[in-house]
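Justification of computing resources. Each target in the renewal requires a structure prediction run like the one illustrated here; the chain below, 186 residues long, is used simply to show the kind of job we budget for.
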Amino acid sequence: MKRIDENPPARHPQRPINEAPLSWWIAKVKPRQEKAIAFDFVKLEIEYYLPLLTKVTRRKDNNKPRKSILPLFPGYISFCSEKGGLRQVLATGRAVNIIEIRHQKRFISELSQIYAAIEQGMSLEPCLETYPAGTRVLVISGPLRGIKGVISKIHNQNKLILSVDGLGQAAISVDSSQVKPINEDE
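Resulting structure tokens:
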């Protein structure tokens, strides 16, 4: 595992997204290769943006905090290139597919919002999975592990509704990565 200061820069070269002179593309990369291809892009002088986040977890053996620098969008990296330069990206051996951005203005606008939020120090996190309201789930990690309940979507947050027949319901915020859906009879 790399130390925090050994990670690639999130943006190369460091400038606003909308100042890129070439078209934006997205590379779908092999698992856990986002930062490695970013280092390749620095060497090849390919402009890119790889939004990164710091995730703090606790070690199981001694409960000490452990910081990890992870991509906000796992499996993808945005980069600038002419159509002829795409071979260079595939030649790294880390990209499995290149996605053409057909609506450049919209993509630049959306990516600029992410860039601005991170530059202002806002904490973003990936939204990998959401469950529709009414889904019965089991909490599989964290302090609530083992608890069963029903997901209720309240003001753009997932709330786990715990109910006790005859007494009522209580709600608690839960991250969607901490739950898995279950059948009614489980």
